[in-house]
Amino acid sequence: MGTIRLTAAQAMVKWLSVQMVEAEPSGSEAVGHGAVSPSSSEAVGQPKLERYIDGMWAIFGHGNVAGIGEALHAYRDVFPTWRGQNEQTMAHAAIAYAKGMKRRRAMAVTSSIGPGSTNVVTAAALAHVNRLPLLIVAGDVFANRKPDPVLQQVEDFDDGTVSASDCFRPVSRYFDRITRPEHLLSALPRALRVMTDPANCGPATISFCQDVQAEAYDWPEAFFEPRVWHIRRPGPDAGELARAAAAIKGAKNPVIIAGGGVIYSGAEDVLGAFA
């Protein structure tokens, strides 16, 4: 197996740039997740593929500029960066994009440590409650703890493992703190697995220690092969469907209140025809 030497931040951006999803839902989508080439997919007449994470919103500070900032600049031709002016508003913009794209596309946001990170918490709560995909890459303290405390570090004098990024735990569907480069090999797929799950969808937080962002590692080349994430469309339970049909038939003035799942699964026309 071949390897490629990159910093942890470069590896993250490179990996995100090749995560694909079908542009529109199809009834033939598989339950599992597979790795296929976008070019080979189009060649056999399969649905059009698009990048799932369509860029990253960023406000740079010392907690993310040297690692993530450098990586985003290096891959700017294939993975765009959008400059925010406030952490909360850029996260809300990313959430709005995901909702407008019917959860089939998403965006990432990155912030520095301390107050820069906590400014994103409100937006994370919004995405959590509404089950909207959002990838949060928050800068964190130095994993080696040699500079301690660092500028704007939120210190907990009773627990040396706590940082401001822990605020994301209650409002994240998935949370992981990266203290070694190779942690990304499992953390990133887990994050997107949550974000593309129709039931457990929501924000995924990668708390990225700032020294680790710039650490080099020999990554397996296979890690960067294009991968297609298939968003499941679970069918209705037959019993529930029968009871709903009976309730509608027995009602004098039936009213259908449809949730976002109808839109996210591409069933608007079917519901309209039924109504």
Describe, in plain words, how this protein is organized in 3D.
The protein is α/β, with parallel strands linked by helices. Helix 3 (65-74) links the parallel strand 4 and strand 5. Strands 5-4-6-7-9-8 form a 6-stranded parallel sheet, sandwiched between helices. A 3-stranded mixed sheet has the order 3-2-11. Strands 1-10 form a two-stranded antiparallel sheet. Helix 1 crosses helix 3 and helix 4 runs parallel beside helix 6. The protein has 2 domains: 3-229, Rossmann fold (3-Layer(aba) Sandwich); 238-274, no CATH class. It is built from 11 helices and 11 strands. It has helices at 8-16, 38-43, 65-74, 87-100, 115-118, 121-129, 184-195, 210-213, 238-250, 260-264, 268-274, and strands spanning 3-7, 19-22, 49-51, 53-58, 81-83, 106-111, 134-140, 174-178, 203-209, 216-220, 227-229. Helices cover 34% and strands 20% of the residues.
Quick overview:
This protein is α/β, with parallel strands linked by helices and 275 residues long. It has helices spanning 8-16, 38-43, 65-74, 87-100, 115-118, 121-129, 184-195, 210-213, 238-250, 260-264, 268-274; strands at 3-7, 19-22, 49-51, 53-58, 81-83, 106-111, 134-140, 174-178, 203-209, 216-220, 227-229.
